[in-house]
Structures are given as C-alpha cells and as structure tokens.
Design a protein that fits this description.
By secondary structure, the chain is an alpha/beta fold. The chain contains eight helices and twelve strands. The relative contact order is 0.13. The mean pLDDT is about 95. Bound molecules: NADP nicotinamide-adenine-dinucleotide phosphate. The site of NADP nicotinamide-adenine-dinucleotide phosphate has 25 residues, from α4, α5 and α8.
C-alpha cells in the first residue's frame, strides 16, 4: 500500500484526506491518505522514518516555512515562495530528496481561465499570503495589472493598499476581485469583507478561494449586484489532481 498525506497545524476540516481516500476507493488504488498535524516543522522529517510516504500536500501555516527543509523546488514554487506539494524520493528505503511544487497556481488557472474577459484589465487581490502569490502569478501571465489589499502596507508598497482605501473608485477600476484571506471561512462564517458592495456590477468577476461555506457573504453580496461569482472548490479539486500527477510521474 502507498502512503500520502497532508501537513498542517489544524486539519480536522481539511478537504484533501476525504478527497484522496474517496478517489483511492473508487479507483481501486491501494493507498491511504492521512493527516499529519504538527505544531511546527522542526522534526517533520521523522514522519518518513515510520513508513515510505509517496507524496505530501502542505497547507496553512507551513506553505512557506517548509521550504527550508526541502532539497529542491520547481520553478513556480521558487518564484512565489510557497509550496503545497512535496515529492519525496528514496534510495532504497531511505529518504534521499524532497522536492517542492506549487499546484495552487495550476488549480487557480484551471478555474479562472474560462471566465476571464478582455475587460478584466486590473485585479484587486484581498490578502498577501501564499494563495495571493499564486493568484497574482496566474493573472500577471494574462497581463492583468494586480493590486493587493492588506492589513499592513507601507508607503513604499506601490501596489499594496490598506482596507480603508477600498472605495467606489477602486472597485470601479478593478473588475476582477479575488479574496485570498480566510475572512468568512468556516467556522467564522459571520465574518465578512467590508467593502462598498453597491459599486459591484455585472462586469465584475468576483472570486473567493474559500470553499466552505460554498457561498461566503462576499460572494452573496457580489451576486446580488449581478457579478459573476466563483468559489474555490474547482481550484481545490484541480490543485489536488495536479499533485496526484506529480506523485505518479
Ligand atoms: P496565508 O498564507 O495565511 O495568507 C492569508 C492572508 O490573508 C494573509 O497573508 C493576510 O494578508 C490575510 N489575512 C489573514 N487573516 C486576516 C484577517 N483576519 N483579516 C484580514 N486579512 C487577513 O493563507 P493562504 O495559504 O494564502 O490561504 C488563504 C485562504 O485561501 C484560506 O482561506 C485558504 O483556505 C484559501 N485557499 C484555497 C485554496 C483552494 O484551492 N481553493 C488554495 C489555497 C488557499 P495581510 O497580512 O496582507 O493582511
């Protein structure tokens, strides 16, 4: 039996374990996907001593922190400084190399590409973490100008704004809005992004990377104002399938 797993700190509501174990069962694959819940990464390589692990996913808060424990990175994870997939290589039974990949980029690209229109010239990305970097990487490849909204911005950060800067003018000039913060994510579903929603209109494409709940307040208000809306479910499935490809090449 092959072993796979997810590295993170709070994994009780994670999608990956159920997704992969269902896939293994439906496709008669002899494999098991387990959660590896750790407070920090200091002894993370100990998990490879117990058994041969053929692949790992990485989630909050380790996507950047794990990099210093890896032997190599693919070009995308190197550029965005975030890893969500690890391919372990072995010499016999002994771990010999850990390579990091970022499949959030692939997942977001697969999700967004059918919805992009020529008038999506500028995007406003809420949050500046690992997922934000993956989203920005994809959008820049479409020559879309990207600005960010953060809790922290210094005057030298020309394309990073603070939340109180988000006004009607800014929303009118950014027809693609992407939430990459955890605001509104289960169990904190009563939290919401506080922006002037009445400015949003049918030309806006509004994306929330959150998939639980399937419709956050952000998406609900955007939809009420006739925007096209997308939650993060398709990105999640696509990033997982890409990780599966990497572990099986
Ligand atoms: P992360 O690295 O921790 O980044 C989240 C960012 O959100 C932070 O950098 C921060 O930006 C902002 N933020 C955090 N807490 C906030 C708060 N209370 N109020 C306002 N802003 C806050 O996490 P991540 O890996 O990028 O993931 C972010 C979200 O995307 C999560 O909800 C995750 O589930 C989702 N995600 C979904 C998929 C998918 O496949 N659908 C894939 C990856 C991630 P500032 O410090 O600049 O304010």
């Amino acid at each position: 039996m092959r072993h796979f797993g997810l590295l993170g700190d709070k994994l009780s509501h994670s999608f990956s374990k159920d997704f992969f174990n269902k896939k293994f069962s439906e496709e008669n694959i002899s494999a098991l996907y387990s959660n590896y819940e750790l407070n920090d990464l200091t002894n993370f390589k100990d998990i490879f001593k117990e058994k041969i692990i053929s692949g790992l996913n990485v989630t909050i808060p380790f996507k950047s922190k794990v990099i210093k424990y890896l032997d190599s990175l693919d070009s995308i994870s190197q550029k965005i400084n975030a890893v969500n997939t690890i391919l372990p290589l072995y010499n016999g039974n002994k771990l010999s190399h850990l390579k990091g990949y970022n499949t959030d980029v692939f997942g977001f690209h697969q999700m967004i590409k059918p919805y992009l229109k020529p008038y999506h010239e500028r995007a406003l990305i809420f949050g500046t973490g690992g997922a934000s970097a993956a989203v920005a990487y994809v959008l820049k490849r479409y020559n879309i100008d990207v600005n960010f909204v953060s809790r922290f911005a210094s005057p030298s950060d020309e394309n990073i704004f603070i939340w109180s800067d988000v006004n009607n003018y800014m929303l009118n000039h950014h027809l693609l809005l992407v939430n990459t913060t955890p605001i509104g994510m289960f169990p904190n579903t009563s939290q919401f992004i506080d922006i002037p929603y009445h400015t949003i209109n049918k030309h806006h494409l509004v994306v929330d990377l959150i998939y639980n709940p399937s419709e956050t307040y952000f998406l609900k208000k955007a939809k009420e104002n006739n925007a096209q809306t997308l939650n993060g479910y398709s990105m999640l499935v696509n990033q997982a399938l890409k990780a599966w490809d990497i572990w099986n090449t």
